[in-house]
Design goal:
about 130 residues; 5 helices; about 65% helix; SCAN box domain-containing protein; mainly alpha
Length: about 130
Amino acid sequence: MGRIKISPSTKIMKIEEEVKIILDRVISDRKEQERIEKNREAKQHELEMKKLELSQKNQSLNDESGRRIDMGPKIQLTQITPKFDEKNDEMGLYLINFERKAEFAQVPKKDWIAYLLAVLPAELSNMLVRNAND
């Protein structure tokens, strides 16, 4: 029986093909893992948002006489609102985001100023307080 001789270049081409197939599998596996991880993170975020929403709905309690009392927001607005950064933040956009978060946290509008002053830099909040008193 005659043997078929395979040239070294043919062997290299076959090895290259096998390596390419393996790399393609690794890449597709990684992409699939990334997609699964993104879906998991999105579901986790959605679950946390629903938990926050439910905690807000359950914030009222009964006092001794059976009357409902409002305990105020369970989500602390200062915890979900980053401090204002004068160098990187635009005041208009920051205020819009602050309002949205305050509404989400169900903070009464009468308390918004106190929460806003807490997240503004000291110099800016002092200036606002001084101007309000004038």
